[in-house]
Amino acid sequence: MASDSGDRLATLKRCLSVLRDARNDSEQFAALLLVTKAVRAGEVDAKTRRQIFDAIGFTFPTRLLISQQAPADCPPHTFRALGLTLLACFCTDPELAGHSQILNKIPTFNDVLLSPCDPDCTSMVDDVYQCLSAVLATARGPRELVTKGTVSALCQAYLNGGHSSERALTLLEGLLAVAEAKCWQRDAPQLLAVLSKLSSDFLKAEDMTKFELCEVLPRFIPLSPPLTENSQGSECLCRLYKGLADVLGSKLSQSQRDPALKLAASLVQACGAEWIPAGSAGSKFLALLVNLACVEVRLTLEEPDPLEVEGKKEVVTACYVLMEMGIQECLREENPLLENVQKMQLMRIMEEAFGAVIFYLRQVKQEELQDPFIFASVRVLGAWMAEETSSLKQEICELLPFLVDYARQLFKEGSPAVSLPQAELVSTEGSALPQDALRFLLPGFCHLTAEDKPRDILIAEGAPALLCEYFLQQWEVLTSESTAPAPLTSTEMSLQTMCGIFLNLAVTAPDLVRRDKTFSSLMDVLLKSLPRLLPQKHHLVLAANLATLGLMMARILAGSAALQGTQRAKEFFGAAIRFLSQAHVAQADPSSDGLALAVSPAYASAWDDIAELWFLGMQAWAGCVPLLPWLPHIALGARWLQGLAQLLSQVAPASVDCELVTAFQAVLVELARASQQCRDVILSHHGMEWANLYGMAALEQCLAEQGGASSTLGGK
């Protein structure tokens, strides 16, 4: 046999010589037949393949592809088939597979896939799949395949069910793995048609095919909206729900259950719980899903065997996604899928699972911190800490030093690790961005800084300094983004949550704010940030957070150089007045002929989110007046007193609730005490009358006392 192989290689070399020296097409064609026969037999090594390429290059295969003739007694596609065989041979060399001469043949490859395939054409289809697979593996390949229509061609080839159509599905999986967003953006209808077939097959299958499809389907479930935007997508979701309910309701082995859980997680990532129908069956299925996920997490993490955990990381990460959905559904009050009894049961089950997550994280070694699974574990724990503040408190307190250190390390160094498929709800294609653990821990930290013990631990571990650095970074990200109105970004949400954390510290640990230079740096950022942000009305909630935090910290840091009447400080307090003064207006009262006090239209949609901040801001502004002697001048320059007097004079007192009266009075009293000019403005606008009308006893007394003192001084 070795001799036969040697003879064939010798023949092949002679053919190559003929190819180089051929005087006409017939000689070249005869030699080419022998070459392609050897290529198809798989007898060409890398060296010989390069010799073939050197002998004929791309020019000859290109001529074959476009030739309209065929040798006598040969099928009409003979030349085309030979050309494709040669290109398939060349494509086994990665360098040649990415060559522009191969990439510009992609439309031809697509045409072959879409053409009717006779029995004697199957080798052409196989060669095309080989070429496309090789192109996909190159750097430029995926982009070229998407832009030149290969996704649509592969979808059609798979749906037609012709020769080797399963290879079309495999190629689609590969393309979606590296360019999912671009594929769906360009070819959503075709991909939905494939998903429709896959989901139908999944629902109908009664054998192992069902579990094999569990492995394939997640790649075809987009993170973008198509699934919930049209009837075809909704039908796919319905079939997938029914198929999964059938699978997970049966007795399964580990190897069968894991793919089903991963499929369910991919659906949750794409659509939340929208794919699960309301009603008894849907609620039982959801509870079962979360229950199975919690059991899997406990089995894997409570007594972690390093080898076993390593093999289970992907499915446990999928379980984390299902647990996060469980948290959200247990908290949902409007149109809940779960009944209250189910919610209570699931919260207890999830508490045990999160206990296992904490136990696992306490075993993590320093060299394991770059593992994406650690990130996924911290993220899901962050989701639990954000919502459930009473359970596992002691265990979480003990874990806080690790969480702060982990978040700090990722923030400082930038993590090169790429998330596991379910670790990030939104991933950036082809990137290995640093993982932002702090973003997921912030809501939990906000709750914890309101309590003595965890707050002391966070302070001892240096969390305030880390959070201040993170705040500065996130502020830079926000200001570099478009100023056009857009949905709330994770950056803006993080900044709002950090304001909540710093507010907690300002209220509960003022000495820390006073002595830690971190907060002086933060104060500087707030002074320059608010005037810039406030005019952008779509950032009103964040502006409210910045204003209130700045005012609260100014009371504590009143002695700092930055607050001694500097231009930046004046601009900040001027912006704070605009935020506070523009919150209420006088508007027609439908129940009477007069005017009533109301939240201004610009604030109405955000008022639920900012009302508490507004009241706290009014209180803090009043508290700053005795500490910063230059503040009354800012209030006068902004004509705040005149505006407030006019507002209170216009509206019916019954339309101003007690809490508002208290807030207005606090500011008016402090300004009246601090400045004769402010008193004069209030009195000249009938301040005594409306102070009496609104029951502002403290303001009445202040105006009367100060007025009496002025008369006495005048008499002397």
Automatic annotation (TrEMBL):
<dbReference type="InterPro" id="IPR008709">
    <property type="entry name" value="Neurochondrin"/>
</dbReference>
<dbReference type="GO" id="GO:0098794">
    <property type="term" value="C:postsynapse"/>
</dbReference>
<dbReference type="Pfam" id="PF05536">
    <property type="entry name" value="Neurochondrin"/>
</dbReference>
<dbReference type="GO" id="GO:0031175">
    <property type="term" value="P:neuron projection development"/>
</dbReference>
<comment type="similarity">
    <text>Belongs to the neurochondrin family.</text>
</comment>
<dbReference type="GO" id="GO:0045453">
    <property type="term" value="P:bone resorption"/>
</dbReference>
<dbReference type="GO" id="GO:0016020">
    <property type="term" value="C:membrane"/>
</dbReference>
<dbReference type="GO" id="GO:0048168">
    <property type="term" value="P:regulation of neuronal synaptic plasticity"/>
</dbReference>
<dbReference type="GO" id="GO:0099149">
    <property type="term" value="P:regulation of postsynaptic neurotransmitter receptor internalization"/>
</dbReference>
<dbReference type="GO" id="GO:0030425">
    <property type="term" value="C:dendrite"/>
</dbReference>
<dbReference type="GO" id="GO:0098978">
    <property type="term" value="C:glutamatergic synapse"/>
</dbReference>
<dbReference type="GO" id="GO:0005829">
    <property type="term" value="C:cytosol"/>
</dbReference>
<protein>
    <recommendedName>
        <fullName>Neurochondrin</fullName>
    </recommendedName>
</protein>
